[in-house]
Design goal:
single chain; 87 residues; alpha+beta; 13% strand
Length: 87
């Protein structure tokens, strides 16, 4: 294999901006029978659906207004005015 990596090599997961030695993507398990916070299958499905809905709403907003979210809400104009005030 090219690059000197074997085919079963996994990338280390980065938590809080720091790589955790010895913890790879295959070591993180999604618990299937638990309730609560974390990498639980039910939570991951809900977060995935919420992300898709949010993306589609943002896409609809851009198609209807012809502007991006920051420009359409006027926040981008505020940022430009604030940056000029600090010059």
């Amino acid at each position: 294999m090219r690059g000197g990596l074997s085919s079963d090599a996994s990338a280390e997961i980065v938590f809080s901006g720091k790589a955790q030695p010895g913890i790879t993507a295959t070591d993180v398990n999604v618990d299937k029978g638990q309730q609560g916070f974390g990498f639980i299958k039910k939570n991951e499905i809900i977060k995935g659906k919420a992300a898709v809905i949010g993306f589609l709403l943002l896409l609809d907003f851009e198609l209807l207004t012809g502007k991006g979210l920051l420009k359409g809400t006027g926040f981008l104009d505020f940022l430009y005015a604030a940056s000029k005030a600090f010059k």
